[in-house]
Amino acid sequence: MAVLVLRKALTHVRAHYRTEQGTRALVHDYQRQYQPGLFGDQPTKPRAKLVLMKKPTLPAAQDEGQDLFTWGKEHQSPENSPAKKRKQTAKKSDAFRDVVARVRTYRDSVGADADVARWQIEHAIEQHGFDRAEVFGKETPEKRPLTLAQKVVAAEGAIRHDISREHCFVFDGQGKVILTKAGDRSSITFTKEEMLTLVATPNVIFTHNHPQSYSFSVQDVVMAARIHVTEMRAVGPHITYTMRPPAGGWPAWEELVRAYQECDSAIRIVLMNAIADNRMSVEDAEATHGHDVMYRLSRRYQFL
């Protein structure tokens, strides 16, 4: 009788095992874990584990018909918790105050730091969705008179992507354009009268484009020293170079030419060795040559 009951039990378990896909795996794993050898195989670690979960108690005002998963996602997720929202609001407020402070500091500034700050301001406005009128004040930048820095950046935006020839804009200290001119792909030629005008104008900001995005040439250094610019700038499609005089003012341009040639000779030896050792291509050497020369020259004279 006991044998018959055991056989019936095994028949029932096997039939249930074959017909119920979901229950089958759990029963099989349970038997493997707690009654090894029942199905003629070796005991293995169960593939599934039954876990009893207590149904959450909803608040009194909660709709009993609402989907529990939706309710939990809205009210129990850390991403939507009140503490998380307060933290996000505080972070956005800090970002807004930082952007406004940058606007006040760099609104009328010209230079590499100001260029970076303006990019950061535009990036923060786009990232956080700030209102431009709130960031820049009651009057938006379009309604305000353009500052010197804005005029310089606007002029550079017009010539930055022209890879066919060079253009220059020369501003005085009040933001007035005193000269604009175009040249060929590698140079701009100035007349004697134009040079006299530039020399006689104080606080000059000279900006121009380099179609190949190279750094300052020896001609740029000579021009900066001869007309005593406040700032010399060169822009390319994706780069901006700036050069300001050292604390004691510009050295004589003849001295700068000799120093530039010395730095150029030293850098050429380094680059030629790199090309010979297959550590650098000719194209890469041409692209980095002017930058390396200007870096060494700037270290020598402490250009700002």
Can you walk through the features of this model?
- The model is unreliable at 22-28, 34-41, 43-56 and 60-76 (pLDDT under 50).
- This protein is 54% helix and 9% strand.
- Strands 2-1-3-4-5 form a 5-stranded mixed sheet, sandwiched between helices.
- The chain starts with a helix and ends with a helix.
- It folds into 3 domains: 9-44, no CATH class; 86-136; 148-301, Cytidine Deaminase, domain 2.
- The radius of gyration is 37 Å and the shape is globular.
- It has helices at residues 2-19, 21-34, 68-76, 82-106, 112-128, 132-136, 148-159, 192-200, 218-227, 253-276, 282-301; strands spanning 167-171, 177-182, 205-209, 231-236, 239-243.
- Helix 1 (2-19) packs across helix 2, helix 4 (82-106) packs antiparallel against helix 5 (112-128) and helix 10 (253-276) packs antiparallel against helix 11.
- The chain has 304 residues and is an alpha+beta fold.
- The longest helix has 25 residues, at 82-106.
> What about the largest sheet?
5 strands, mixed
Q: How many helices? A: 11
CATH topology of the largest domain: Cytidine Deaminase, domain 2
> What fraction of residues sit in β-strands?
5-15%
The CATH architecture classification of the largest domain is: 3-Layer(aba) Sandwich
CATH class of the largest domain: Alpha Beta
Structural class: alpha+beta
How would the global form be characterised? globular
Mean pLDDT: 76
Tally of structural domains: 3
The parts where pLDDT drops under 50 for at least 5 residues are 22-28, 34-41, 43-56, 60-76
- Output the helix-strand order: HHHHHHHEEHEHEEHH
Radius of gyration: 37 Å
Q: How many individual β-strands?
A: 5
Percent of residues in helices comes to 40-55%
